[in-house]
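Discussion board: Methods & Data

I've been asked by a reviewer to show the raw model output for two of the constructs in my manuscript, not just the figures. I'm not sure how much to include, so I'm pasting the format here to get opinions. Each protein appears as its amino acid sequence followed by a line of discrete structure tokens. Is this the kind of thing reviewers expect to see in a supplement, or should I convert it first? Here is construct A:
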Amino acid sequence: IILYFHILTRTLFGILMDSNPLSVYVMHPFWNLVVKFLPTWLAPNLITFTGFMFLVWNFLMLAFYDFDFTASSVGHEHVPSWVWVSAGIFNFLAYTLDGVDGKQARRTNSSTPLGELFDHGLDSWACFFFVATVYSIFGRGESGVGVATLYYILWVVLFSFILSHWEKYNTGILFLPWGYDISQVTISVVYVVTAVVGVETWYQPILWHFLYRDLFTFMIIACSFTVTLPMSLYNVLKAHRGNTLKHSSLYEAFLPFFSPVLLFILSTLWVVFSPTGILEQQPRIFYLMVGTAFANVTCKLIVCQMSNTRCQALSWLLVPMAGVVVLALSGVAISETLLLYLWTTFVILAHIHYGVSVVQQLSDHFNIFAFSLKKANSD
């Protein structure tokens, strides 16, 4: 992977704005208390990575008991209650660790651009794990959410995430979306409630024919289009009026959206025109492929907005993906499912390789270890 690291010589710490009342008045005081119990030798990046792995474990745990998202449907063996309790605990632990990693960095005087990139980079991948894991609560049955509907909901979440970093790319300020803290606390509670009352509770309508699945869908879409998107546009327009916008050209300002939109087009073409109905056959793997490819594209934007460099118009990963989609839709591939598995494996390995390469280069440049507070030449 070609790494365009002007960040090595032009690193800038971004300004972060968090005005969510839940975060300001409840969670930050809680995190300030928690961080006091952490040993001072504990590296912030290790905290970040541990939190992320809790989300991965939740995904793997639910994949074992509900691989095709049918376990919550009527007539199927449901996910054990202890799994839901574990998912709630692990999700809240991940959320807490994501909140204290920065505080630990400031507490130990170890704040670095690597930490910021590591945190936001893993957050971009975490978006998929949140959505896929929550999906198992409702599933794809008669009272659940269809796999195609969930696919578009996933994209709403992904674009909501990238909006924040698009803001920072244009304004230099990262405005944290209000929906994040509320959703994390809610998700953790819902997991535990599901363990107590059972998934059958979510079959019941809230009011008339309005089901819990409809509330789930409505809240995500409404939050994105009535809060996240308007606030992002407002912040960028405000910077434009104040002559503080970093990119005066409309083309340059919207350049970060090119690769995510192209990824959306390619994956949607595959979904709509798949000869074998690949999304119906392998929804979990398809979501994993899309979420990982999105994280790879987003990480490159994060590098650009951190280093104050121009965004790359096209992510190289989308070039072979276009070929894969053509191969799948043409029916030339012996097995579309096998093709999806092979491509997903490639995307995951490519993204991990990119992440390791970035972390290694930054660690070498700043003379630090990624998961230790020791200096690289301290010995």
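Construct B, same format:
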Amino acid sequence: MSRGGGKGLSLKDKLDGNELDLSLCDLNEVPVRELAALPKATILDLSCNNLISLPSDFCSLMHLVKLDLSKNRLQQLPLDFGRLVNLQHLDLLNNRLVTLPVSFAQLKNLKWLDLKDNPLDPVLAKVAGDCLDEKQCKQAAVKVLQHMKAIQSEQDRQRQRKLQAEREMEKKREAEQRAKEAQERELRKREKAEEKERRRREYDAQKAAKQEMEKKTKKETVQTRKPASSSRPPQPPRHKPSWSRSVLRVLLFVLFCILCALAACKLTELQRQPLCVSVNTLYEDVVAALQNHKTLQNMLQHNSQQ
């Protein structure tokens, strides 16, 4: 293997049992593919190189039990670093780490940890403490795991609270949307009812106007058919015939009948009939009486003149 991560000497030449020593190789990157081909290499030494970061597929090397990354220039570890669940020994001395990924809490088999000489966050640095001997490094592993588990739990709670808040917000939005839709349905229903009422009033108004027009047209037609009657002055009311007129008419009718009977008895062959004889006699007596009455009237008039 050449410097700078180039491929030269095979990694198998570096393998000693289950230990693979790649320290002081001036590596800028980790040959993950070649390491994955050596599952027997459970102990990996990458110390004293020029590593600034680890590739994400580095976490696929789940067979690693002991890992030495000391004296590099690592600024952060991969987010899924916790996939290295078989890791028991981890040396991160003298790097540029400030924090650890939350997945670090999943390294449940970690027994030994060294984080000295890193610009750690003050809280993390206090938790890690000094790794000056075997006991302190073991305590550092336990305390850091507990700390990272607490951070993970808090993040999970925050995530749950956020998820719950999002669900509540979603429910609220759905409730508001349902209320809005209900209001819109009610508004459309009210507008529809108002439109029906408006059309009904228009229909009633048109019907009334049509009826009024028909009445007016009918009235004009009647007036057109009887123009003279409208121009004539009002006639005075006719008085009913009085009873005296009725009596007069009866008398005239009786007189007419008498004259007809008298004419029949005088001018026809009926004059020899007994009835006609009586009528003629009566007629002559009446004429004589009238003549005497006229004579008497003339005498009276003559006397009055004298």
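Answer (T.O., handling editor elsewhere):
This is acceptable in a supplement if you add a one-line summary per construct. For B, something like: Residues 134-225 form the longest helix (92 residues).
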